[in-house]
Amino acid sequence: MTTTTVADILAGVAIAGLLLPEAIAYAGLAGLPPQAGVIALLAGLLCYGLIGRSRVAIVSATSSSAAVLASALGALGPDSATERLALAGLLVAGAGVCFLLCAALRLGAMSNLIARPVLRGYTFGLALVIAVRQWPQFANIATHGSSFFGLIFELLRGYRGWHLPSVLCGLAALAGLFLLERLPRVPGTLLVIVAGILAAPLLVAHGIVLTGPIHLRLALPAMAAPAGAHALPLIEYSLAIMFILYAESYGSIRTFALRHDESVQPNRDLLALGVGNLFSGLLQGNPVGAGYSATSANEAAGARSRLAGLSAAVVVLLLVWAFLPWIERIPLPALAAIVVHAVSKSLRTSVFSNYFAWRRDRLLAIAAVLAVLLLGVLQGLLAAIGLTVVLLLRSLARPRLSVLGRVGAHDYLSTARFPAAVTVPGMLVLRPEEPLFFANAEPLLAQVRERVRATPAARVVVLSLEESPDLDSTALEALAELCDWLDARAIELRLARLKDSAREALARANLRHQPAAALLYASVDDAVRGEGVQP
Length: 535
Hints:
Elements: H1 3-29, H2 34-51, E1 59-61, H3 63-76, H4 81-104, H5 116-133, H6 135-139, H7 148-157, H8 164-180, H9 188-198, H10 200-205, H11 231-259, H12 266-282, E2 288-290, H13 292-300, H14 307-327, H15 332-343, H16 353-358, H17 362-375, H18 377-396, E3 401-407, E4 411-414, E5 427-432, H19 441-454, E6 460-464, H20 473-487, E7 492-496, H21 500-509, H22 524-529
Parallel strand pairs: 5-6, 6-7
Antiparallel strand pairs: 1-2, 3-4, 3-5
Helix pairs in contact: 1-2, 1-13, 1-14, 1-15, 2-12, 2-14, 3-11, 4-11, 4-12, 5-17, 5-18, 8-9, 8-15, 17-18, 19-20
């Protein structure tokens, strides 16, 4: 047995004690029975260990996806626990199918659709929501508030009903977790859980609720939607679960890949996450993703390959087989403490410090936090995504056009930034500073017309399209209209620095004043000289 294999097996043993209670806790966060978390843990560890590519990533139930699933189930409003479990299975399996479709379409870069300030703000707000939602388990009370501020108001108003022994148990477990995390080699979560199990008879005598029966079964349930369930909401919520899972998972995988100088294979990870969630959903488990805390614990335990995750799955199976009656005796306030401790790592305001220091995207991050707190988990996620897209379109739809002048023998730079740049007599050399596409093509080319009107001596317009990797139909039509407008004024248009896709699009468009032979200016200097190059 090699040194690497031994290290991975030991790492798997070390993290199994952390992952199992966390998985059970996240099942409670989603409003599902404890076995949903165990099923998700095994499905995530086995599927990613066999299919995924990150050496240290641990795929299991996560707090964020559990919170999104809980909100989705709350919106769908199942009538019974059986219907709730069936709907959860459909949503998780649906998220798995969405992952597989994205993998087939090679959409591995889709996590970049959410800007980092938005993702960090959303994660911060979500952690606040999750932490507050754990207090009813700390206090052993029933609540009905669904909104963040409504729940806080309800908890404060009903403080007389808090069950003091439960509160003390939860706070003691939370304090133990924070103290033990200072000892890197000590399995703090496992020690807290063992202490809670051993103290269970005393805790029950004081009215503290335990986890209760965990029913594990291998039979595949019938994947049938409860009466009254509609396909469109199921698809929408499955997409929401998939998106937050992938944003969280890809962030963790990429972070640790950079740390270990590994290459990232996002499409392969989409496949692994798809299979993991599909199996978990079929068995009515929680959603699974690569959480940062579990992956960090795996790295700290000395994992060197995916064998660590597979070893953890084997250890979890052995623990469940040998100690299931003991696991059922975990106090619920201790599980709530585990959830709060896990999300506390996302409640560090230091993640926003750079945005304030750089004076960039501060309001964006704050708006993402408020979106979760005011609109809820699901609507906050949609608002965060929408905010990112709106900002992207706002940036791209406010085009900037630079006038270029010659510096040296062949270089052309912005005259606004480099006043020494010399304009070419009889020519107007222009460069859009954003890609040319449907949202900005017309206003940007309108700026070109304004420049031409302001330069009556210009007989040639050189337009450098180096920022445009491709041209859509709106951009092609707008360029055709510009060609006609310039031709009517006896002005020649030369397009420089075309990317291959843009050149091919123009060639297929066959613009009247831009034949294929006129699309070969490799540089601005070539276009100014009128010297195209042969392909």
